[in-house]
Structures
1.
Amino acid sequence: MNPLKLMFVVLALLPMHVLAHAFDDRYDLPMPLGYFMWGSAAIVFLTFGYLVVSSKRSVTQALNQTRFIYFNHLARSAVFILRVTVYLLFLLTIFSGLWGTQDSLMNISPTMIWIVAWVGLSLAVSLFGNFWPFIDPWYTTYRLASRLLPSAMGIQFNNLSISYPVALAAWPAVGFFLGITWIEVVYPQAAVPYKLSMILIYWSVFYLIGIFSFGPVQWRKHVDMLSIYFDFLGRISIFELQFEPMAMRFRSLGQGLLFIPHLNMSKISFILAMLSSVLFNGLMGGDLWFLIQKKLLLMFSFTGTYAEYIVGTIGLMGLWLFFVLIYYLVCLWSAHIAGVSVQQIMMNYAGTLIPIAIAYVIAHNASHFVQKMQMLIPLASDPMGWHWNLFNTVDYRIEIGLIDAQYAWYIALCAIVTGHMISIVLAHQVALKQFSSISRVLIASLPMAVLMIFYTAFSLSVIAEPMVKFESVEQAPAAD
């Protein structure tokens, strides 16, 4: 049986109905959380066991041989219209933040940035392939500046041809990606429209200086975190898109993750930041982080306005470094027993972690995304809070209960289990390509399977934590 077919058969065995109830805005799980964690870990382990027993070569090679289908005039015109639309929305987002109301619920900027662009585009790219280069508004600005300004103003915008420092690799992109996460989950004014617009403007200026200095290839490969981020996400899709010239071809699910060119430690760290950032976002929404934060504040005697900034930064960086350390140790274990270099193991298996990152995005954002996307209906009529009613939709009221807590939990559960199962399947395919002996495939894959099982249990505990009643610090009995 095809391993991917097995995955969906096993998922069908998961319970899909539960009578959950509210308790002070918290929800009780129908059974102890440990049952879900052990059960999900067992499903991931059984998937690994089946792959080992079947011991067949990947059946996904055929689709990888399909040829690119080049876009015709009509398709290129549709892409052009899409690019213009996205660029106008980009300008509207900046304009709304600068001159619209500063009420985040009445201004379209926060919704466009955090819901449509950050979450919506992540999911869309994962499904339909990496179409970000087709619509990237910053790259569009670069192309407009490099083509229009020389003829209009006599200014030559030739790339300065500065050689990008090889030692930096993609570490700037890692830093910027963690910076976006910091703004989203730590910065208390992350929903203030004016602040968001200024961040977009600062990044735009920095982007243009950098891309004209180093050239588009080096800039997008090493510094532009969005280009790297969407490239990684798009590799799981069955659609492989080519930007110049515009073309598309089909491939098997996740096939693009089996080989990622120019992969190094910085980009591996970027992938691990994709995992840790979403989990940290979920961690901050529960009582567990409240307890951790309180302990850190007492431990380091942090006080003042910026104390929570410091603690949040420590938590974000600490979880990322924890993921990096765990991945390194697992790859070191695998390299030791398989008799290969740890660098080779780290590079070969890094791409197989990306389905887990996508699963975390779905698990953490499903309910919030569905709810907030509805806000675009009234905001479309009055994007800046100026009491307009352009499309007669300003009085629309969102349906909060479209995805309640019980369905949000099961969406999260299925997403996490599915993501880890896909990762297990891809890791097995990597091992089959790397080792000729089935026994060596088993030996090399076992540490990675253990890592997947650990990730499954850990991520479920973080996602479920806001739904489970924990004894708060205030409720805890005082020490004698």
2.
Amino acid sequence: MKVPMKVQPAKRTENITYAVRDVVVLADGIAATGKEMLYLNIGDPNLFDYRTPEHVIAAVVDAMKANHCGYGPSSGIPDARRAIGAEAEAKGIRAIQDIFVTTGASEAIDVALTALVNPGENVLVPVPGYPLYGAILNKLGVQENPYYLDESNGWQPDVADIAAKVNDKTRAIVVINPNNPTGSLSDRRTLQAIMDIAAERGLVVLTDEIYDKLIFDRRKYVSLASLSDDVPVVTFNGLSKAYLAPGFRIGWGIVSGPAEVVGEYIEAMNKLLRARLSAHHPGQYAIAPALEGDHAHLGEVVAKLTRRRDMTVQMLNAIDGIDCVSPGGAFYAFPRLHIDRPDSEFAAELVGETGVVVVPGSGFGQAPGTQHFRVVFLPSEEVLERAYRKIEAFLKKFKAG
């Protein structure tokens, strides 16, 4: 019998990593030994004491009962797109040329990048930043062109660095606001400067605004596309975070800018959307009720997260060897470690010894010579306190060893 040949995977997968999930493989092995685990690694509210609003759930159940269980329109059902457009206009976004509903905001990001960039070109992405962008660009054979967030300035995007990194192969600038993993909230002046660079250099702006309703300290949120009608912008959002429904896998993209500038780009995205048929059909019926319905849950969620943010910043900053910038939104913090070894070793040994699961900063990118880790402060105050006490005790031993 002929020995079967080993199937060789595509080379495009060699450099794809996703630190948020990769660390779970290690954590699962530790959990199997019976050790108590404290998970501060996954941004899934529903794993903790947060529940999807009842009217959002009811809308999907009603859609299923009404037999909206077949394929939906490729760009999304009309009522959902109408509601998305109305909310975008309320935020000040004008010159809206297209709206499309996707399987989570992650598919919208994939579609927007796939329709835009060619091998050999590059996209400016924030560092630290969400690793999905790098994974998609690697798949496409496109260069990730990193620009840095300034830790000394509350993790604001370094506008001078963005301007310096643009070259003749640059196609787009990615902005994540509030940022994952730092929780930073970009101010209006910084955002306007980014739009000015895009306008001057003829770039598309891809703005990830999935955490736009989870803002602390009564700060005002500015949607990037509201700052200009003349720059082509794709704004990403969805139900996962603010509406506590990540498992629904419902996201969207909003394309704005001059029609004559974005027209062919929109058609390229729609080709991809038609090829994959549709996003989850019943789930789309939750969009209008979510955006237009009762938002009482948001006040409760933001109040809860504010308490947990404050505890996180206070306790981590009290640990010798850790500095933590206070997040302005989302539910992440990105503390800096003053250690001589890689943060990947810190995170691996931390979970092995204490059961506390965090993601190493290297999984999100960081300035050379710095070490960080990301914490998710979704868990209860009791869990967070125990986790931070364990981190403090472990770090003393880690530094001594």
